[in-house]
Amino acid sequence: xxxxxxxxxxxxxxxxxxxxxxxxxxxxxxxxxxxxxxxxxxxxxxxxxxxxxxxxxxxxxxxxxxxxxxxxxxxxxxxxxxxxxxxxxxxxxxxxxxxxxxxxxxxxxxxxxxxxxxxxxxxxxxxxxxxxxxxxxxxxxxxxxxxxxxxxxxxxxxxxxxxxxxxxxxxxxxxxxxxxxxxxxxxxxxxxxxxxxxxxxxxxxxxxxxxxxxxxxxxxxxxxxxxxxxxxxxxxxxxxxxxxxxxxxxxxxxxxxxxxxxxxx
Amino acid sequence: xxxxxxxxxxxxxxxxxxxxxxxxxxxxxxxxxxxxxxxxxxxxxxxxxxxxxxxxxxxxxxxxxxxxxxxxxxxxxxxxxxxxxxxxxxxxxxxxxxxxxxxxxxxxxxxxxxxxxxxxxxxxxxxxxxxxxxxxxxxxxxxxxxxxxxxxxxxxxxxxxxxxxxxxxxxxxxxxxxxxxxxxxxxxxxxxxxxxxxxxxxxxxxxxxxxxxxxxxxxxxxxxxxxxxxxxxxxxxxxxxxxxxxxxxxxxxxxxxxxxxxxxxxxxxxxxxxxxxxxxxxxxxxxxxxxx
Lengths: 265, 292
Known about the structure:
The complex is a heterodimer.
Chain A: H1 4-16, H2 33-55, H3 57-63, H4 65-78, H5 93-98, H6 109-124, H7 133-136, E1 147-151, E2 156-160, H8 164-172, H9 176-180, E3 189-196, E4 199-205, H10 207-217, H11 222-229, H12 234-243, E5 247-252
Antiparallel strand pairs in A: 1-5, 2-3, 3-4
Chain B: E1 16-19, H1 25-30, E2 38-41, H2 50-61, E3 64-67, H3 81-94, E4 98-102, E5 105-108, E6 111-117, H4 123-140, E7 145-147, H5 162-173, E8 176-180, H6 181-191, H7 195-201, E9 207-212, E10 216-219, E11 225-228, H8 237-250, E12 255-257, H9 266-291
Parallel strand pairs in B: 1-2, 1-12, 2-3, 3-4, 4-7, 7-8, 8-9, 9-12
Antiparallel strand pairs in B: 5-6, 10-11
Helix pairs in contact in B: 4-5, 7-8, 8-9
């Protein structure tokens, strides 16, 4: 008699890779053990492919349902979920797409996936209290340069060589004219992805704003971020981040880092 | 045994409720339906954002039951403490009237296999399930209900009838039973059991909730068929009859209409709930007549 651990390992192998021999002993007469396992395998695959569809709807629309299902099936076998919280399943799918030869002609596809991943993370990130401008009013101006922030888990930045925001919007709206009008050669873009009152907003930011936000989101001191971009409007950008609730914590450091210490920003 | 200071003593009236899916969020917020409670899959409301916010709004109008589908009480390798903690966080925000999980397993080798898989009915599996029900009840500091499975396969090394397994889990852990009438019907048909014997074997005092759902029938090459528990259609007449039989034995019980695939307009679910309420009312009348 197999132990429960042995039994579950054998059935797991059959569900994740149906080429494994069906070793599970059953009593049912009308169907073979392999047929019965395939019922469970089918249910499992449908649930997981649906989880990926929910996280990557634009990718699915770009490649078509059947193509998506084939790619998803291969991905699921190679990277099955590690938790029953499927809202964040498939966070490595964009990297999988990058190496998926049948999709190689769609050069922008992995980055559309990365945008959808950022949207999923923003949608499901924990609810947290945010730092308000009033809370910073009490900071000694001399210490303000050493301010470091922790970003809200729902906010992130994304850079791409392709206009993935335009692709994503046009595809999600099923606007064929807008899809046809997209020019893939317009150059690199940076995006800010955030959650506002439960809805996701994706906004283009210019290179300096991206570098400033990236430094702050990475927890670098305010002076370092300001010096990095050397722009008169940077204090206003900070005010906008605060007003939008992009930070959940702040701290003051004694010795602010110099921009040189930020590495390859 | 269950911890002493537990919440979760059944505040839901013995009436019908409906399963709530995302498709119906807007409808139930705009016009809260007249049902005894609503039940959701706990895993759909983890993390933050709009989904849990919406469920909090639903909770202001109606008791909520949190029905877990992914803790894998039957896993030999133990419960995932991170997943149990996420369940606890949902419970702290929603303050559910009921919480439940399944007699099944879905995690092996650290992977979630995305289905409620059948357990061999052995002393070892019974011990594993009871240890995990204890752990869940202790962590959540409340009584939970465990649901009987629907299965398509049985195992040669099983030694305990499923109904005895269910009763033993309740007796050893102090948990309640979520009696899924459709699951009993599906498994009984698939395995040639007598559904009435199953219902009659469950301990009345442990029953905290009943589930009703539709299922599909797959024709097999040998002329037989296999019942698939897909929650994608109306409750069939034979399951309504078994439900009435269960109400005779258990007494009026909070009853949920589950519908998870091919989800129809909310009104269709509400009509099924009203039918369940009609059967509950009949049982109440019968009991009053007998008492008089």
